[in-house]
Amino acid sequence: MTWPQISYVAEDHKGRIVGYVLAKIEEDAEEKGEPIHGHVNSISVLRSYRRLGLAKKLMLLSQEAMVSVYKAQYVSLHVRKSNKAAIGLYRDTLGFEVAQVEKKYYGDGEDALSMRLSLKDT
Ligand SMILES: CC(C)(COP(=O)(O)OP(=O)(O)OC[C@H]1O[C@@H](n2cnc3c(N)ncnc32)[C@H](O)[C@@H]1OP(=O)(O)O)[C@@H](O)C(=O)NCCC(=O)NCCS
């Protein structure tokens, strides 16, 4: 509700939601001496609609809006170390890099990769 411009849904031909990306802006970043940046909280595509490029499109729409609406300088996210599909999307398709590994980030003890993508040339 706070940053509606940077979250998107994908719909099928009947208007049913088959994918979404939910993102926020770290607005207090400037107070902490960090540049304004976006953060992707969650993205998912319905199983039968995967590998069609929907997640890539949702991410690009969100990233573009982060820059045009909020002048975000980069986007960050966390992903489970074991999530090969999501890591493929972020690193290979979108160009994210691993900023750091956060040990036992998730409740079940799994490590997270903290990833970042500069939006300066967007
Ligand atoms: C991760 C997820 C959102 C990807 O959605 P998608 O719409 O299938 O992704 P896209 O079709 O846009 O894929 C873009 C690229 O991501 C990579 N990718 C996607 N799925 C992959 C898989 N299963 N294995 C390896 N790479 C994969 C590929 O590089 C792919 O490009 P290509 O199809 O040209 O090879 C989807 O698998 C999903 O909903 N997973 C469950 C929820 C989840 O894990 N969310 C991320 C939490 S951080």
TrEMBL record:
Gene3D superfamilies registered for this protein in UniProt: 3.40.630.30
GO molecular function terms noted in the UniProt entry: protein N-terminal-serine acetyltransferase activity; protein-N-terminal-glutamate acetyltransferase activity
Superkingdom of origin organism: Eukaryota
Keyword Zinc-finger listed: no
Keywords: Acyltransferase, Transferase
Cellular component, GO, one term: NatA complex
PANTHER family: N-TERMINAL ACETYLTRANSFERASE, N-TERMINAL AMINO-ACID N(ALPHA)-ACETYLTRANSFERASE NATA
Domain (N-acetyltransferase) ranges: 1-120
PROSITE patterns in alphabetical order: GNAT (PS51186)
Record-stated family: Belongs to the acetyltransferase family. ARD1 subfamily.
Pfam families for the chain: Acetyltransf_1
Protein name: N-terminal acetyltransferase A complex catalytic subunit ard1
Organism: Sphagnurus paluster
